[in-house]
């Protein structure tokens, strides 16, 4: 259990945590610490006595960190034990927090940052007075976006897709759209800041377009060339509230102030400016040819306007370095007095901003979401005259390529990977530098990948799983995860670390936070089933069903079920009847299925599916229901080198017939895990299946009759008996075999629709289904 002691040291709030910061501990932490009191900007957490940290605990730390960042503060983690440092490091989250070796050091760090933000210094230059606040410990980078492609200068078709979060505050030449084609048609001057991005398309009409979003990671921007800022501003400068000044003079004053206020003379600064304009002079391109020719149209607006600008300025470069640096392609640099340069784009508002100003940049940017007052976008000319200037200054330590922020995706080049999937992957792995995608299995409506990822420092991260599916399926999976997985089997399931959607697709990133480390190796139960003897598989199945999934199957409720409705396979596989006719020449309107291997006719299962299921649609009975996985195949069960077991893929998880998961696995072990290479193999397996279908009750174990040479069949029989034992156990005193057979049929029918199934497997599945239908019909007549 987690104990939390809150105290104050020299006025600094300090929370001392002792015990396990697990799911329950995170609940206690959130109740006591989140949200932090209004006056709190800095918080120190003493973690020296924390003995365990789960993914839920990490989420609580991130939650309070984000809350304090909105107040220009944050948390400082003190005295982290080595294991805790390791967990945060390998999960890629250590860089999200400020850390200190001791509690005293943490308190000093928190106090110094708070003091730096609260103490303005009055500075004078050019006869004008400014207030300057320096933010200690702030680091930033200038990101240069653009591709070195000679064709891009000619036709503008080479654009980099990124998102508003990755881009950050930035400006340049780009376009908005759901895909590259749309963005190419809307290319022009653009600016991004906080939740807002705007562009004035060079399409002859030049009508500004804006997007406001609460999810910057979901907002797509296509960049031809641009500048952006990463990290935090190094200082805040506020000008005379009533005095008027040109943007050219202000930029010169800023460079002079910064030259005398820091240890080194900055050659390049980034800035985000909030101001009121007296005379706004801006420019934009009329058509695409003007962009590449650097020919812009300028207009002046003498009315008072509101202005938010993102820009860059600099002192003359050292003579031996060749003069003013090239900022980005198509940049219209404004050369100021003394060789200084400036370039910036801005949002124009119909009137000056009326809200009470804040020192918090994130808060100011978030207030830009008022589309009604947005009027235009443009390159801001240096003769623009402003007043009430408030400027956040970035002091970039490095100038780097924006491509360094983009994710490298390694995958099979022959793998179908739509653009929407690429965008989703970049969003949910945005903190990584590289991911390697390996398909787990091809779902009927989704695609799942095992992911090896590497952080910005090149170090390998914890294993992950990425599942991409239609939006509705992903939404259903996320809801099922929070409802059925987190409260019951969290420690043996993956943890959702991110979701994203684009077009009609959505993706979920699952991480194995409880795993041993980045070098852990995960394998699927499929591999173990094929390689291990039955004696080693039995303990694994025992752990899965009598320990991990016991909170699901071990707590059944006695309710009414409609088995023919619940287990109708056409819900997930609507083309079964069509595929049976196409691949097996079996018409659903023919009553019989000839089976020469058994020298007999079987009921045609597809006729029964088309006609028998609807006729029995209203059949209902009392039966046991529980939470079930819904698609518990052996590719959804993973093991690490320590034989720790993880369950994934919860899109079908919910309340249903309690024996459903056991029947799902039986269909796999007898159809997918056995050898089917010849008609003789098929004949032997049908004889085996005939014995399985003869039983009349759940507690009746089928005999083993098989005359072939495949050792996997005997293993399959052993595991089928084990699965039916579990089914009998969770149904307590009920032995009716019908609900089990219908659950088994639900996953036998679809084999005819599986793209990876052989023709022999499809024939075997059809005969198997026919034998089960025969047993159902016999039981109905008994």
Short descriptors:
782 residues, alpha+beta, Transcription Regulator spoIIAA, 60s Ribosomal Protein L30, Chain: A, 5 domains, 11-stranded antiparallel beta sheet, 8-stranded mixed beta sheet, 23 helices, 38 strands, 32% helix, elongated
Biggest β-sheet strands, sense, barrel: 11 strands, antiparallel
How many domains? 5
Low-confidence stretches: 148-156, 318-325
Measured by DSSP, the beta-strand proportion falls in 25-35%
Helix content estimate:
25-40%
Average pLDDT figure: 87
* Total beta strand runs: 38
Structural class: alpha+beta
Q: Any idea what the shape is?
A: elongated
Span between termini: 57 Å
Quaternary structure: single chain
Report on the structure:
It is elongated, with a radius of gyration of 32 Å. 32% of the residues lie in helices and 31% in strands. The model is unreliable at 148-156 and 318-325 (pLDDT under 50). The protein starts with a strand and ends with a helix. α19 (660-671) packs across α22 and α20 (679-692) packs parallel to α23. The protein has five domains: 3-117, Transcription Regulator spoIIAA, CATH 3.30.750.24; 144-228, no CATH class; 235-396, 60s Ribosomal Protein L30, Chain: A, CATH 3.30.1330; 406-520, Phosphorylase Kinase, domain 1 (2-Layer Sandwich); 534-628 and 657-781, no CATH class. It has 782 residues and is of the alpha+beta class.
């Amino acid at each position: 259990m987690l104990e939390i002691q809150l105290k104050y040291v020299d006025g600094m709030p300090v929370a001392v945590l002792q015990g396990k910061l697990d799911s329950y501990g995170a609940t206690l932490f959130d109740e006591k610490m989140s949200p932090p009191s209004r006056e709190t900007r800095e918080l120190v957490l003493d973690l020296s006595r924390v003995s365990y940290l789960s993914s839920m605990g990490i989420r609580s730390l991130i939650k309070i960190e984000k809350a304090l960042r909105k107040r220009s503060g944050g948390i400082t983690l003190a005295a982290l034990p080595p294991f805790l440092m390791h967990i945060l490091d390998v999960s890629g989250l250590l860089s999200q927090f400020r850390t200190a070796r001791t509690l005293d050091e943490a308190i000093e760090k928190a106090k110094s940052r708070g003091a730096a933000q609260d103490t303005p210094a009055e500075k004078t230059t050019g006869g004008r007075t400014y207030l300057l606040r320096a933010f200690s410990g702030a680091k930033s980078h200038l990101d240069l976006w653009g591709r070195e492609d000679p064709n891009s200068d000619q036709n503008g078709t080479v654009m980099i897709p990124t998102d508003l979060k990755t881009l950050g505050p930035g400006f340049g030449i780009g376009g908005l759209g759901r895909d590259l084609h749309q963005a190419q048609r809307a290319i022009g001057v653009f600016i991004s800041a906080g939740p807002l991005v705007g562009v004035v398309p060079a399409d002859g009409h030049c009508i500004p377009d804006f997007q406001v979003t609460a999810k910057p990671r979901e907002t797509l921007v296509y960049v031809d060339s641009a500048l952006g800022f990463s990290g935090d501003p190094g200082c805040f400068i506020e000008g005379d509230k009533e005095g008027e000044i040109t943007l050219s003079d202000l930029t010169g004053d800023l460079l002079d102030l910064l030259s005398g206020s820091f240890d080194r003379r900055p050659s390049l600064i980034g800035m985000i400016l909030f101001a009121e304009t007296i005379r706004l002079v801006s420019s934009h391109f009329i058509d695409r040819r003007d962009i590449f020719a650097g020919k812009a149209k300028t207009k002046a607006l003498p009315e008072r306007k509101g202005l938010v600008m993102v820009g860059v300025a600099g002192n003359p470069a050292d003579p031996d370095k060749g003069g003013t640096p090239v900022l980005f392609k198509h940049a219209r640099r404004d050369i100021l007095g003394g060789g200084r340069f400036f370039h910036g784009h801005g949002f124009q508002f119909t009137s000056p901003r009326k809200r009470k100003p804040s020192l918090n940049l994130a808060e100011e940017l978030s207030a830009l979401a008022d589309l009604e007052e947005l009027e235009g976008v443009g390159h801001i000319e240096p003769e623009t005259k402003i007043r009430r200037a408030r400027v956040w200054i970035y002091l970039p330590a490095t100038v780097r390529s924006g491509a360094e922020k983009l994710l490298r995706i390694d995958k099979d080049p022959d793998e179908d990977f739509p653009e929407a999937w690429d965008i989703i992957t970049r969003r949910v792995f945005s903190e990584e530098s590289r991911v390697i995608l390996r398909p787990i299995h091809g779902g009927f409506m989704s695609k799942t990948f095992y992911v090896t990822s590497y952080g910005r420092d090149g170090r390998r991260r914890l294993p992950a799983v990425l599942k991409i599916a239609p939006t509705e399926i992903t939404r259903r999976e996320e809801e099922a995860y929070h409802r059925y997985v987190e409260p019951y089997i969290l420690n043996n399931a993956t943890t959702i670390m991110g979701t994203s959607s684009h077009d009609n697709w959505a993706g979920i990133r699952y991480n194995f936070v409880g795993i041993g480390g980045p070098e852990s190796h995960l394998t699927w139960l499929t591999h173990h089933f094929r390689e291990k003897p039955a004696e080693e598989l039995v303990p694994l199945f025992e752990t899965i069903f009598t320990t991990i999934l016991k909170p699901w199957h071990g707590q059944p409720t006695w309710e009414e079920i409609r088995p023919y409705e619940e287990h109708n396979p056409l819900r997930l596989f609507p083309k079964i009847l069509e595929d049976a006719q196409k691949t097996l020449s079996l018409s659903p309107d023919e009553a019989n299925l000839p089976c020469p291997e058994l020298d007999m006719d079987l009921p045609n299962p597809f006729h029964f599916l088309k006609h028998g299921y609807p006729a029995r649609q209203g059949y209902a009975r009392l039966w046991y229901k529980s939470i079930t996985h819904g698609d518990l195949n052996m590719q959804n069960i993973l093991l690490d080198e320590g034989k720790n077991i993880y369950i994934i893929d919860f899109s079908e998880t919910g309340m249903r017939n309690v024996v459903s998961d056991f029947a799902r696995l039986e269909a796999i072990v007898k159809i997918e895990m056995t050898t089917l290479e010849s008609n003789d193999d098929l004949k032997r397996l049908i004889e085996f299946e005939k014995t399985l279908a003869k039983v009349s009750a759940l507690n009746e174990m089928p005999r083993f009759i098989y005359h072939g040479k495949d050792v996997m069949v005997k293993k399959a029989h052993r595991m089928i008996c084990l699965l039916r034992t579990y089914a009998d156990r969770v149904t307590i005193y009920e032995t009716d075999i019908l609900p089990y057979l219908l659950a088994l049929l639900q996953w036998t029918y679809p084999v005819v629709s599986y793209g990876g199934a052989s023709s022999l497997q499809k024939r075997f599945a059809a005969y198997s289904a026919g034998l089960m239908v025969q047993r159902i019909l016999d039981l109905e007549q008994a």
